[in-house]
Protein 1
Amino acid sequence: MDNLAQLLKESWTLVEEQRDKVAGYFYARMFLTDPGLRTLFPVQMDGQRDRLLEAIVTAVQTIDDPENFDDYLRSLGRDHRKYHVRAEHYDTMGAALMEALRQSVGEQWTVEYDQAWRDAYQAIAERMQAGAAVDPNPPFWHAEVLSHERRGPDIAVLTCRPLQHPLPYRSGQYVSVEAPRYQPRLWRTYSIANAPREDNALEFHVRAVGAGWVSSALVRRVKVGDLLRVAAPMGSMTLDPGSTRDVLCVASGVGLAPIKALAEELAGHNRTRWMHVFVGAAARDDLYGLTELYQLAAEHPWLSIIPACSADPGFAGEQGEIAEVFARYGPWTTHDCYVSGSASLVRSALRTLAADDVPPENIRYDAFGEL
Ligand SMILES: Cc1cc2nc3c(=O)[nH]c(=O)nc-3n(C[C@H](O)[C@H](O)[C@H](O)COP(=O)(O)OP(=O)(O)OC[C@H]3O[C@@H](n4cnc5c(N)ncnc54)[C@H](O)[C@@H]3O)c2cc1C
Ligand code: HEM
């Protein structure tokens, strides 16, 4: 593996210099070999062009880290079933990748590099296919929209229920969602905002981001009765069943969704742990989901909710960025900590928690954008 990793690293510089060329050639070759494959991909492929190739290249580069490599690839393979990817597609894609590398890099592409990339791709494809083959879940669940409520110009709270059978998940996890009627073949991840319920309904809190394909559809176009597709749950922002520590939760905007699920989960059995939920927004109108949380807090004295606004001087509660606000209430050294929301919130919250010497294993977070 060492030699393979070395060859991959060496050849990477050559690939990087020709990135655009490799990407262009790769897709052209793949769709020429099997035109049917084009229908698996979104109509608009601007972002995809880089994303998929980048993912393959990242996977190839991590091949010398077998532990991470294995888990990541198996779950990626499982997840690819939602794209209708079948085992035979991996060969077509692998051949297209190799052809693209040879053509784009030219004479500097040696036989050794060629062999190293082929071996690495083969190992990746095998792991992904093995993950897909043993997945007990369907590739995705069809879910009917039961309710859709706008909470301000950019935010919607919607619920849906899987049609075939329940979707098993843990509070705090997220799922990939497609709105096939409006944005076919575009999947984005959304956190489930409720603890598992007997009626199996899933709640989502979605904020439409500027020019965002899927979030705009979910907020502005989806209606009661529409069918969504929802893939298997992912994520580790879940409660540690063995922990007796108190809980700190920090959320900005719709980052509140998984935190609400965690609060509901604890409400089912907790008697002894304090839970402090800090919720940040720019102005009070953006604090969209507090009513439900206040109701929960009224029933459960261990739960406290602390909202804060960063740009609303008239707001009667805490003032400032939410990461500064919860820092003032610290230290949080002995808590289980959960952070969810924008990448900038997650970055600053992690800095505060590190300054409080919170052990990393007691911190779980989901960033809704690139960290
Ligand atoms: C683990 C996880 C959980 C998530 N949970 C939720 C959730 O519960 N609710 C929710 O609303 N979103 C959530 N997201 C974000 C969601 O997955 C999408 O990224 C988001 O809805 C934008 O998708 P889109 O198709 O509308 O935008 P795209 O079409 O992908 O992007 C369009 C443009 O908007 C920009 N953009 C993308 N995301 C953001 C953003 N967050 N803020 C500002 N600009 C952005 C892009 O750079 C691009 O220029 C979560 C993300 C992750 C990783
Ligand atoms: C080495 C093998 C592969 C790797 C490492 C890989 C990796 C990825 C990654 C990381 C993504 C981003 C989204 C996600 O996390 O699910 C993605 C998306 C995707 N992949 Fe793959 N993939 C591989 C093989 C394939 C194959 C064989 C196909 C089918 C021909 C395929 C089709 C797709 C499609 C359709 C998308 C979604 C595109 C989009 O939403 O824009 N992938 N892939």
Note: Residues 37, 40-42, 48, 51-52, 55-56, 59, 76, 79-80, 83, 85, 89-90, 93, 121, 124-125, 128, 186-187 surround protoporphyrin IX containing FE (ligand 2) (CB under 6 Å).
Protein 2
Amino acid sequence: MQRRMMFLVFFAAALAVLTSATFAKGQAATTTAPAQTGGAATTTTNQPFDPVAATNAYLATVPPDKKAKSDAYFEGGYWFLLWDFLAPAIVFLLLLSTGWSARMRDLAERITRFKPVHTFVYWAQFLVLTSLVTFPLGVYEGYIREHKYGLATQTFGPWLGDQLKGLAVGVVLGGVLMVALYGIVRRLPRTWWIWGAITSLIFTAFFALIGPVFIAPLFNKYTRLEDPAIRDPILSMARANGISAQDVFVQDASRQSTRISAFVTGFLGTERIVLNDNLLKRCSVAEIESVMGHEMGHYVMHHAYKGLMFFSIIIVLGFAYLRRASEWAFRCWGEKWRVHGVGDLAALPLFALLILTYLFVLTPAINNYSRVEEYEADIFGLNAARQPDAEAEVDLKLADYRKLDPSPLEEYLFYDHPSGRARIYAAMRWKAEHLGERGEGDKIPGPGSRQTGR
Ligand SMILES: [Zn+2]
């Protein structure tokens, strides 16, 4: 589903995206990542294995043109954070100030006398209209630009099909949430913000849990991985870490893109290990093990549930802010917009605007939270898979779409996963501390003798 549309499905969707373990791979180490020291570090140390020099050696294997392309792609993404905020914000303001929102409400109320149906009809109009107006931006960001950087594999027809499916999911699930929230607001005009926060939280938890099981298959096919050479080491690592999965599934992600990814999801006996076909095609068995060790880290450390805790704070604070800010906005512009207060459907663009602004301002905090969990999962993965050089190779492959070596401020503000430099350094540090252990470290080749894909 498109990110901009996610914003519209209120906190629920934002939470689902950010807590979902599908957004995998990473670590958090702006504080632990070494500053760039250049090649000199290689010669000025007496240590048998210098992690900083090894990190620099890995980074130096990336050709300059490839690095420039990846930097340009990722830095361009900083601007899309802004455009993806401004474009819908302008649409919401226009809907309010031109009276369109009031007209959409009047239309919804003419169709039937049932209030829940009013809410659903208004929501459908609102989401479809907003998606239509911001569609050109979506085409550029999600289709043209992805093709320009060689990250997309879909032709326009299937891409559009996925967007329409995403819109349908947004209309139905967002509609259910809206009906519930407006029901609460109308019945509890004083305490709506508390009950609204609780309802949003329950909805979000539900969405995060059913998403991988019921929504993901709308976009991709999942098949059992049959090759024992890859499946058996993954299942063995899963058992060793207390994950009771029987099968490994493959997602046909190459239908949409060239990105490598994987996730571990499920609970109460529905545990499921999923890796995508790009990972299978582009990585060695050691690299796949390294990625899966990271994903298992998310699962074993209950990151989905901890993320839910984190977002429950954001949601409760968000509703308290919504109450204050909306009261102020109604006093200033309510009459002009023909919007009669919090229970009025026509006020929905105002709430969408307030939420969009709130999440935009919180982006660095949310990124930091995510990056810390990703760092933890990386450390877990290194200990579980014991493949530091394979980890470094995967980190270089992730540079297809993530800048490898950002400034500390950039990493702090914009990275929801640690940078390539931070991740490779963590791997090399692990390697340095395990040298000679059961032949672990010293048998592992350095960047000079890289493993090629299977
Ligand atoms: Zn991760």
Note: Residues 1-45, 441-454 have pLDDT under 50 and may be disordered.
